[in-house]
Specification:
- This protein is mainly beta.
- The protein has a single domain, classed as Lipocalin.
- It is 12% helix and 46% strand.
- It contains four helices and twelve strands, in the order H-E-E-E-E-E-H-E-E-E-H-E-H-E-E-E.
- The protein is globular and about 60 Å long.
- The relative contact order is 0.17.
């Protein structure tokens, strides 16, 4: 069974290597600014635990250069390129956020406040995408705990008293690098329906390395669209067909639905294990860490003129053996404007 699993993992990564933000689609306008909010309570039946929420403010600026020198981080000779700037935070908590005593059998309290700078490149017909992002962040700040405790004074949420037992008692600089690669395998188009005009299958590859998270993953993504692509080498229309399908290309309301799944090989997770030179009594021992984690994501994107609204549901299998649930789930909402 283990041999079969490893073979499947290597195969997916090998295929993906030929290939926000979430798995976002190509941005057709020049620039973009958006706000993203993650929380357990954005999905039915959840409560604060594990990855409990996050905030991100993102600005994307389109590069005016169409042709640049081919390098490792820019493998496409020509196409659209974007510079990405993000500021945000992630919060992680155990099941009982109100317990001020040391909790040894659950995920420790931890947070990550960061600013990031990145670069996204598409090939000429948007069949491939490479994104590289450098995170410059801190763990150990008391601010996220104070904010969460203040928010929990609203409604029936339990108070968050346990942040005094967080990993790292003071701010520690934690840089990280993420590389995400996506390549389209094939398209199914001209579907006779008003909701989905074409379907796209892509493979995914992601690498995280640094002091925050070290893992490698690969998988597949299926996307459905209610409009036909503006630039896509897989489509060629006869002159008599152009007017028939032009209205779908020019739709003001563009709807994208998607589902992705991937397998991750986890080498080190600082939110669970801390850093080797930082002693913490709250960490999860190495022998309890699950080195193979499954992750799924599904959602939709609505684009009307320059405005964007997205909702995404995400789930991860058990990251450590002491966690009671088989999966942890949460959801996120994004509001954005392109210009």
């Amino acid at each position: 069974m283990k041999l079969l699993f490893c073979t499947l993992f290597i195969l997916i990564v090998y295929v993906s290597w030929g290939q926000k933000k979430r798995q976002f689609e190509p941005i057709l306008q020049n620039n973009y600014i958006g706000f993203h909010f993650d929380d357990d309570f954005l999905f039915v039946g959840n409560r604060d635990e594990q990855y409990t929420g996050g905030l991100e403010l993102e600005y994307i600026r389109k590069s005016q250069k169409k042709n640049e020198k081919v390098t490792i981080l820019n493998p496409f000779a020509n196409g659209d390129r974007y510079w990405n700037y993000t500021f945000g935070s992630y919060l992680y908590t155990p099941y009982n956020v109100s317990d001020s005593m040391i909790i040894l059998n659950d995920r420790p309290f931890s947070s990550y406040i960061f600013g990031s700078f990145g670069y996204t490149a598409y090939n000429k017909n948007h069949q491939k995408r490479l994104a590289a992002t450098l995170y410059m962040g801190f763990m150990g700040s008391a601010l996220p705990g104070r904010v969460q405790d203040s928010i929990h004074t609203i409604g029936d949420s339990p108070p968050a008293y346990g942040w005094g037992n967080r990993i790292a008692e003071s701010e520690v600089f934690i840089p990280n690098l993420r590389i995400n690669y996506q390549a389209n395998l094939f398209n199914i188009g001209r579907l006779r329906t008003t909701l989905v005009r074409w379907i796209q299958l892509s493979n995914l590859f992601e690498l995280n390395t640094g002091l925050f998270r070290n893992n490698i993953g690969g998988g597949l993504k299926v996307s459905g669209y209610n409009y036909l692509p503006i630039s896509n080498s897989s489509y060629s229309y006869k002159p008599t067909e152009v007017n028939k399908y032009r209205k779908y290309q020019q739709r003001k309301l563009r709807i994208t639905t998607y589902f992705s799944s991937k397998i991750e090989l986890v080498l080190h997770n600082t939110t669970l294990q801390s850093l080797p030179w930082l002693y913490s009594p709250y960490t999860i021992e190495k022998k309890y860490i699950n080195r193979h984690v499954f992750a799924i994501e599904c959602g939709f994107n609505l684009n009307y003129n320059h405005f964007n609204l997205s909702y995404a549901f995400q789930a991860r299998s058990k990251e450590f053996k002491k966690y009671q649930g088989n999966w942890h789930t949460w959801a996120g909402v994004t509001l954005g404007f392109s210009f």
